[in-house]
Every structure is written in C-alpha cells, then in structure tokens.
Write a structure and sequence with these properties.
The chain is of the alpha+beta class. The protein has 8 helices and 30 strands.
Length: 564
C-alpha cells in the first residue's frame, strides 16, 4: 500500500485493500526487484505464489484491464526466470486456471486443482486418505496432460497427504495438531501414483516425523522402501520422461494408468481406485508408447515383485496383443516390459520363482503365490530340451506339453482372504433395500493384524481413531457407496444383531463438510476367526451402480510357497 496507485482499484472495498493491481507497470518493476534482491541476499531456493489470481477491477473499482493484469503476472515470472534462472517457482492455488502459458516459466499447476487440504476436494469412497489424495491427483494430472498440454517436467507430484488442520469445533490450529496421522497401508499406492504421473516432482507431504511414536516405529525396512521408489524413479528418468496416460481418466467403475517407454523397454502403471475387482485392458502398441520390438516379457514390480505375467498358452507377448490384466480393488500395479529374443534358459510365467532343468526334469523353485489361489503356471522351454517330469518346490506335479510350452495347474495352500476382500458380489442393477452376504475370517487374518500392531506400536486416542487410516491393526468393514451422503440412513446387522456403523470423513470430523464424507464403516476386530457370519445391510434408495458392495479393509494379501 506504499503506492496509492497500486491499490487504487480497492477504494470503497471493505478494509480498503484486496491485493495489488498487477497491471501497473511500476508495481511489476518494484516487485520483481524486491524478489530478486531477496533471493540474492538470502540464497532462497525460490518463491511460491498462493491465491495468485486476477482481481479484475470491475467488482472492486477502477483498475487496469484483465489483459494488463494477466500480462503483468506473465512478465513477472518470465523476468524472474531470466534474472535468477535456477530458482523453483511454485504456482499453488489458482495457477492452474491460467493455462499452459504459466508452464513456460517453469511453474507447475496445483496438484489438486484447488487446494491440498482434506476439506478442499471431493472425497472418493476409500477409507485410506493417501489413496484418496492419489486418486484426486491422478485425475488432475490426466487433465493437465491431456487437456492443458502440460509438459511432464512440470506436472505436479503429490506423495502421501496433508493432515486435517481444523478440529471438531471447526477451529484451525496453528500449532501442533493431529501429529499421529501416518497412513501405514496407503502410502505405497500414493507413492506409485505420483511417480506414474509426475516423475520429475517428488513432493512428499508427510512422513512419520512429526510424532515421536510414529518416528520411532518407522522401521529401517520401510524407510528403505520409501527411498527405493524415489531412487528408482531417478535412475529410470530416461524412460519415465516419456510417461503418458493410457486407458482413460481416473473414474469410478474403471481402471486408469500410465505408460513410459524408451524403445522396447518400459513400464506400465495401473490403478484400480474402486474396491471391486476389475480388468485393466490395453494393447502393446503405439497407444501406450511402445513402437519397437516384437516379443516381450511382462514382469510385476509391485505388489508381488518378480512375478511374471504370461500370455495365455504362450507366455511371451507380441506387439499388438491385447492384455487383460485382472486387478484387486484399491490396488496399484507396476509392470516392467522388456524385449525378448532367443530363449536360452527356461522362462517361468504367472508366479514368482526360478526355473531350471536337471536332465529331463523341470525344477521350479521358490514358487510363490497368494494364499488360497489357483493359477496356471507356464514355462517356455529352450528348443531341443526334453521334459519328462516336473517338480514345484520339491513336489512332483502333473503337467502338459504343447510344443515348447509346459503348463501346470497349481493351487496355493490356505483359505483366500486378501486385499479389499469382498462380501457377496457387486450388482450394478442394485438400487435399494437389503444387501445380504456371508463371510468367514481365517485365523491368519487376525494373526496378520496382531503382527502389524507389534510392528507399529503407536498408541492412539479416541480422537485419533476417528481417522480410518490410523491404527492399521483394526479390521474394518466398509459399506462402499459412490457419492455417499452423511444423511443417508444405513444400518447393519450381523447374525441378526444390530452392529454399530460409523461415519468416515477424509476431514475426520463431521464439521469438515459433506464433500469430505467417505461413507459408512464398522470396526469388526472383535469377531471370531473361522466362524461363518451372516451380514445384512439396509440401504436407502440409490441410483443403479451407486452401491458397490461390502469390503474388508486393512488386510494385505499374503503369499506362500506351500503348494496345495
């Protein structure tokens, strides 16, 4: 306000001040000089412009034109880039409204297209806040890439989440608040989602560092895994710089993904933001950026590292093949694509493990699969090798031979109960009334939860536990309703007895607003293992496909080498 001309347009406005008129040339000169001098005196890394929008004097009073203001902001960032070229310039809230011209100066648009606080964007149906944030960021990054022509170098990254800042009374805390907020089971999805869409911008929003209990519990193993993904993306930047969206934008009832290739080598990232199982469908051709090579191997890097994904009946994939990849709910998958020439050693598909030939015996070792599942194991045999017997993890197993392709049906011991385990089936035509299902929880599930509590011995208060992503040893049952509303009347009975359903908010508290409402859930940690239960959900009238089903939360898939 030192120069009345810069704020002349605010005369009569409440408070007499609503920002400077960026169309005024003298203000531009003053502000540019001030920022340059400040950076040179302090060696600051750069500047962040928040709430940086055109005030357009029509509603405030006389001022410069919209064009003059826009040109003034453009001149500001371009001149800063010219005078101090190595600084970071962060656009933050509202910069995305101005379009591609802002990227030319090295600024990037806002990762959420508005603000990163939990109360600032519409929550999707997911009990883990890191996955919520990741889904929102991928949706915005698809728009930036496909509609705004944003270069991948400035597409905004966003890893983990920002903690809610307001309490149950709506008071915003400016001191320590809700420090125990680590999403123990959601961070990997968030990390991979950010790398898959914004590999140049690793914006890490939180790690277990604000709370001493979380800090001490954050194991060396988890720290190493966190660093592994960041280091991996740096090493593979020559490929990741070519990342592009595939399949389509992130949406309810569909899979989304990205792919990046350098020649015939590359990576495919797939995401299922829904709780129900779905198939990811894509072609190995130019539509995903693959333009070289003829035959390929697909290897899973996450979640089951080392598992190969075989083409039915043949193992290897060819250029132009359509891949149908089944995905569990709320899952991120990373696939590596590598070209294949001659087969000099046996190649194993559809499981993690090792293959070797001893005379006429095929030996498969360390074969690992998800507990309680079945799969067809394929092995491509080098030309000229004769196979008369097969052992898998030391067990004699029957097999079939079709040319140089060996196949065997393999079952892994135990009862299946995995990631986002459903109760009943998803019916797209369901609109209202009663949903019923049966379930039994294996003993090993409770053992997994107990082991996690030992590995993450962080105590939580009742207020902490309002956040559904903390205390990851709780067994939760989620009523998955797309676009759920807090006023909906939803009730649940287990074995005929009423069971308490709670409301979940990404903003934690009801006062955080309806757009942070996630849905209804129950803590079923006290149920007994291996007992068959019947559940009954009473639901209000819904649109077809709005009710997505009933799912267990906080269970991770387990893997075994025990062949059934």
């Amino acid at each position: 306000m030192q120069n009345p001309q810069w704020t002349a347009w605010t005369q009569g406005h409440a408070g007499g001040y609503s920002g400077a008129d960026t169309g005024e040339r003298s203000f531009q000169d003053w502000f540019i000089n001030k920022l340059v001098d400040f950076q040179k005196r302090t060696a600051a890394g750069g500047f962040s412009f928040d709430h940086w929008y055109l005030n357009a004097g029509t509603h405030l009073g006389p001022g410069t034109s919209d064009y003059a203001q826009w040109y003034g902001m453009r001149r500001l960032v371009e001149e800063l880039r010219r005078q101090i070229p190595d600084i970071v310039m962060d656009g933050r809230q509202s910069t995305q409204s101005y379009g591609p011209w802002t990227y030319l100066s090295g600024m990037y648009p806002h990762p959420f297209g508005y603000d990163e606080q939990p109360g600032s964007f519409k929550a999707t149906a997911d009990l883990h806040t890191d996955r919520l944030s990741a889904n929102r960021t991928r949706a915005m990054n698809w728009m930036y890439s496909m509609q705004c022509y944003c270069p991948i170098e400035v597409v905004p990254g966003f890893i983990t989440h920002q903690t809610q800042r307001s309490d149950a009374e709506g008071k915003m805390h400016r001191t320590t608040f809700r420090t125990r907020d680590w999403d123990y089971l959601g961070w990997r999805y968030s990390m991979i989602s950010s790398i898959a869409t914004a590999p140049f911008n690793h914006v890490v929003n939180m790690i277990p560092a604000r709370d001493e209990g979380e800090f001490k519990a954050f194991s060396e193993e988890y720290q190493a895994e966190f660093r592994k993904w960041l280091d991996w993306s740096d090493r593979e930047m020559h490929i990741l710089r070519n990342v592009r969206p595939i399949i389509g934008p992130p949406m309810i009832d569909r899979i989304d993904g990205t792919a990046a290739f350098d020649g015939a080598n590359g990576y495919i990232f797939l995401f299922n933001p829904n709780y129900q199982k779905m198939d990811a469908v894509f072609r190995l051709d130019h539509s995903i950026g693959l333009t070289e090579g003829a035959r390929y191997k697909l290897t899973e890097m996450h979640p089951q590292e080392g598992k190969t994904v075989g083409k039915p009946c043949s193992g290897f994939w060819s250029r132009g093949d359509e891949v149908v990849f089944p995905m569990e709910g709320t899952r991120a998958v990373v696939l590596q694509v590598t070209p294949v020439d001659d087969v000099a050693v046996p190649m194993l598909f559809n499981v993690a493990g090792k293959a070797g030939i001893d005379g006429s015996e095929m030996k498969l070792l360390d074969v690992t699969g998800e507990v309680g599942t079945k799969t067809e194991v394929l092995v491509v045999i080098p030309e000229g090798k004769q196979i008369r017997s097969l052992t898998i993890n030391g067990k004699q197993t029957g097999f079939k031979l079709n040319g140089n392709i060996l196949s065997a049906d393999v079952g892994f011991a135990g009862d299946r109960f995995g990631h986002s385990e459903p109760v009943g089936t998803y019916d797209r035509d369901f609109t209202a009334g009663v949903f019923e299902g049966e379930f039994s929880i294996p003993e090993r599930v409770f053992a997994q939860l107990a082991a996690r509590k030992t590995a993450w011995p962080v105590p939580y208060t009742e207020d902490d536990l309002l956040a559904t992503w903390v205390a990851p040893w709780r067994l939760l049952l989620f009523v998955n309703i797309a676009d759920a509303k807090p006023e909906m009347k939803v009730t649940m009975k287990i074995d005929g007895e009423p069971f308490d359903l709670k409301q979940a908010f990404n903003g934690i508290y009801k006062r955080s607003g309806d757009r942070t409402f996630i849905g209804f859930y129950a803590d079923v940690s006290a149920l007994r293992p291996d007992k068959k239960y019947k559940v009954r959900i009473q639901l209000p009238e819904l649109a077809p496909g709005q009710f997505h089903g009933l799912y267990f939360e906080n269970i991770e898939s387990e893997y075994t080498r025990d062949i059934r």
